[in-house]
Amino acid sequence: MMRCGERRAEEILNTLLRALKCPEMAKDFSLPLWNALMPVARKSQLLARLACLMSLGGLLEAVSPRVQRHLEAAVRVAEAHHRALLWEADRLRWALQGLHIPIILLKGAAYGAENLDASLGRLSSDVDILVPKEVLPAVEQALLSKGWEPVKDLPYDQRYYRAWMHELPPLRHKDRGSVVDVHHNLLPPMGRMPLNVHDLWRRVRPSKLRGFWVLSPEDMLIHNAVHVFQDGVVWGGLRDVVDAHSLMEEFSRDGDFWPRFVHRAAALGTVRPCFYACWAAQSLMGAPVPPWVMERFSRMGLAVSFSRRMLMWSCTRALRGGALSKTGLETQVARGFLFVRSHWLRMPPMLLARHAVQKLLKL
To answer: What is the CB-side half-sphere exposure of residue 89 using CA atoms within 13 A?
Structure first.
């Protein structure tokens, strides 16, 4: 049974999620409610989004001056992050211009470049790009020559990324401290859900940011889904679910989006993570997912089963637990299950065993 303090924490999180959908309600929050809500919003990296939504609606002046100062500061931080993200993209273009290769912006960098609703108040810690696999050595050398340095310097970590993962080891700029993740795929090639990256390249489009490309709307949402529910551990992924909800709301203004999305998920073999992304965004944020979409996904091999129930139970506790810093037994069981699952999906059994031994030897 949920204790009184846990019930109160859940209520605070639910209030935050409702306020992100309807910022108007936040102007009537009491000071004690703001005191309880702000730490949860900060931990989830959602305070800046709430503040920007309220600012956009002219609601900041309706709250207490003490609260207003925090919200205005959050808006300034979000604006600084957005400027820094665009500047980092500009520096990447400069560093790679001599290679004459297409560069696809991913995740937060793509949202910001395209001025999508999901970029509003989004705090980005790094820039993710996708380039053809055959040019990875040239891209890495160009970045190293322009001031970026390896973040992972242990030989095993270098081999882990280069031989088994879908990206280079992260690179950090020696002066600005900014990090770039250079991908050649969206999922590990040796994982249990290999993704044909050539299918993505055939549907990219020029970005509004000169010199870059972005994924199609369907592929952008699919990337969000696989990032959280296939390649990630879900823990701490509440902001990604909010991103998914925002993408769904914006893209679904095109009446043909959902049929294209379902067809694309099936074509890329990503039905399972897309189902869970739609379920999470709908259950937590009330995302506008048509019922037939969930029914179609269910008919594609996702019938109700113990594994599906277990994953949904674990994801619910992990998403909420990550936002609330919960450490109860149920949350820890869910977190452990999702951690093991993420690695099981990422690599075959023998390689996973080897990787586990290497990590244990570091403890």
So the answer is: 30
The CA–CA distances, whole Å, from 241 to 17, 88, 280, 286, 287 equal 11, 25, 7, 11, 10
What pLDDT digit, counting tens, does each position of 308-355 carry? 888 888 888 888 876 676 667 887 888 888 888 887 887 777 777 776
Q: Cα(119)–Cα(96) distance, rounded to whole angstroms?
A: 25
Rounded to a whole number of angstroms, the distance between the first and last alpha carbons of the chain is 36
CB 310 within 8 A of CB 283: no
Q: Going edge to edge, which strands form the sheet with 148-150?
A: 148-150, 171-173, 179-183, 126-130, 104-106, 213-214, 205-206
The reported pTM is 0.91
Q: How far apart are CA 361 and CA 143, in angstroms?
A: 32
Assess contact for 158 and 152: CB atoms under 8 A: yes
Query: What CA–CA distance (Å, rounded) separates 182 from 70?
Result: 35
CB–CB of 238/49 below 8 Å? no
